[in-house]
Predict the 3D structure of the following.
Amino acid sequence: MTEKPTNPKDMIGVRKTSMSAVPSGPLQELSLAMLEGALKYGRHNYRKAGVRSSIYYDAAMRHLMAWWEGEDVDPDSGISHLVKAIACLVVVRDSELHGNINDDRPEPMKPGWITLLNDKAGEIIERYGSK
């Protein structure tokens, strides 16, 4: 049996963004959350009016905390809290890409602050062990 020659399109296509690497289940769930937002607030409203970072950060964190505390599904929408958090992040990122975000984050921390905290956590774990 001989190998099939490669399609010339393959040589070009493998060097581009790969949607086949993205799982379709969460993407389809994301479409539900985006549909809900479109019906509540208007389709692509965030592109027209822009968004304020803090509003979407707060919403994403509320969904993540609800999920973390054991509530898997948002009672208002019936959609996974994780998916709702993802939708918040997608809107923020879309606004960044379109240059219409109101970036009201606080002044940034010094570079490397997380590394310092992680190093400190490692020292504490070395001293007391992990449980």
Q: What stands out?
A: Strands lie at 51-52, 101-102. Residues 24-128 form one domain. The radius of gyration is 21 Å. The helical segments are 8-13, 24-41, 45-49, 53-68, 81-98, 113-128.
